[in-house]
Amino acid sequence: MHQLALYQIGLNWFEALTDSLVSNSLLIYVSMLMFTILRFYLPRSNNVLNLFIWIILLTTGWFFVSDKLLDLIYKNNTHYQLLVNNTWPIRFAIGFLINGCISLVGYAYFNWQERAETEKKKTEAEQLSKEAELYKLRQQLQPHFLFNALNSINALIGSRPAEAREMVQQLSDFLRTTLRKEEQQWIKLEDEIHSLQLYLDIEKVRFGHRLSTQLELDTDAWKMQLPALLLQPLVENAIKFGLYDTTEDSRIYLLAKAEAGQLVITVENPFDPSTAAAQKGTGFGLSSVQRRLYLMFGRNDLLQTTAKENIFSTTVIIPQPIVSDASRNV
User: Fold this and answer.
1) Does residue 302 sit in helix, strand or coil?
2) 149, 240 Cβ separation under 8 angstroms
3) Is 92 helix (H, G, I), strand (E, B) or coil?
4) Which strands form 211-217's sheet, in the order they lie side by side?
5) Can you tell me the distance from the alpha carbon of 180 to that of 199, in angstroms, rounded to the nearest whole number?
6) pLDDT value at position 149?
7) Is the dihedral of CA 202, 206, 209, 210 positive or negative?
8) Which residue spans within the chain are E strands per DSSP?
9) What confidence score (pLDDT) does residue 330 get?
10) If you write DSSP's letter for every residue of 218-232 in order, what string do you get?
11) Are 188 and 224 spatial neighbours (Cβ–Cβ below 8 Å)?
12) Phi/psi of residue 318, nearest 5 degrees
């Protein structure tokens, strides 16, 4: 186009070709230089004027260098010199527009790239923060449970040493099982029930005949998955409020079923309505479960509690993970 335009205004083909090669080669070099500058230094929105100044400076440099080179080639060609002198504003304007367009494209591209990188870092930081909090919640479960279990063992050592030894052995089995799950985010319900049974064995030694349990597991729910160590704090909370404030026997009922592709677990315990205020509290057990579910699913409606007559119910709804994600964690 450049060569054709020069030919149309009076230069011969060779002069037009030479002018076109020199001018466009330098223009390409200036454009690449501008692109490289934007790659390493991207002006902020309040410094966009700097970008405009750079375009003017680089276009001016391109114009004078190309003019000097062509002047050396055609210094004795008065026809060429006259034509160049008459068309320099157009040549400068075209060079400015080309450099401006390339600079705007480069600015938009590197600005988009920078925003994408910032968003990626922000997402990674939020994910790390969420995983750290989940890890902290899982770690808090052990000291909380250990504190209660060791108190129970201490109470049994004097009066019932044989049961204290049995409880120590069961505590050892339980901790060995839970330690293996520390790095697993998702496990099958059947594995979680196995750990829960070890925990209940400990609590039965602690409370004797006063504590009985009933587990009802739907066949379809048996192979479904849930976050590791989620059931123990629910059952621990049921035992705490089902036995601590009464001298009567207590039966803890656990129902797990599959419902609309989700795992629904309900834990029920009796309670004394006269101390109902205590049931409204979401102590460490329920609050930690609710927080874990929120961090994993971004929902606050996955844990619900109800109190009807003398039965307190806690229900958790667990959406099932995508198979590929779950398989990486199990």
Assistant:
1) coil
2) no
3) helix
4) 211-217, 250-259, 262-270, 311-319, 303-308
5) 15
6) 76
7) negative
8) 186-188, 211-217, 225-227, 250-259, 262-270, 303-308, 311-319
9) 42
10) -GGGTT-EEETT-HH
11) yes
12) -120, 100
- Along the 330 residues of the chain, how does pLDDT read in single tens digits? 766 776 666 667 777 788 788 888 888 888 888 888 888 877 777 777 877 888 888 888 888 888 888 777 777 777 777 777 777 788 888 888 888 888 888 888 888 988 898 888 888 888 777 777 776 666 666 666 677 778 878 877 887 788 888 888 888 887 777 766 655 678 889 988 988 888 888 888 777 788 889 999 988 888 899 988 888 888 888 888 877 666 677 889 999 999 988 999 999 988 877 765 544 444 567 888 888 888 888 888 999 999 888 888 999 999 997 655 544 444
C-beta separation of 230 from 261 below 8 A:
no
0.90 exceeded by the pTM? Answer: no
Handedness of CA 322, 324, 325, 330 (dihedral sign): positive
Q: How far is CA 257 from CA 104, 280, 303, in A?
A: 59, 25, 15
Cβ pair 212, 252 in contact under 8 A? yes
Q: What is the largest CA-CA distance in the chain?
A: 119
Q: What length is written for the chain?
A: 330
CB-based contacts of 241, cutoff 8 Å, min separation 6: 269, 271, 278, 279, 312
> Which tokens sit at 43?
């002006």
Q: Which residues pair with 269 in a beta bridge?
A: 312
Mapping DSSP to helix (H, G, I), strand (E, B) and coil, where does residue 272 land? coil
169 is written with which tokens?
């052995």
Contact 65, 98 (CB under 8 A): no
Q: What is the C-alpha separation between 271 and 268, in angstroms, rounded?
A: 10
Amino acid type, 101: C
- 277-306 residues labelled b (16+ CB within 10 A) or e (exposed): eebeebeebbebbbbbbeebeeeeebbebe
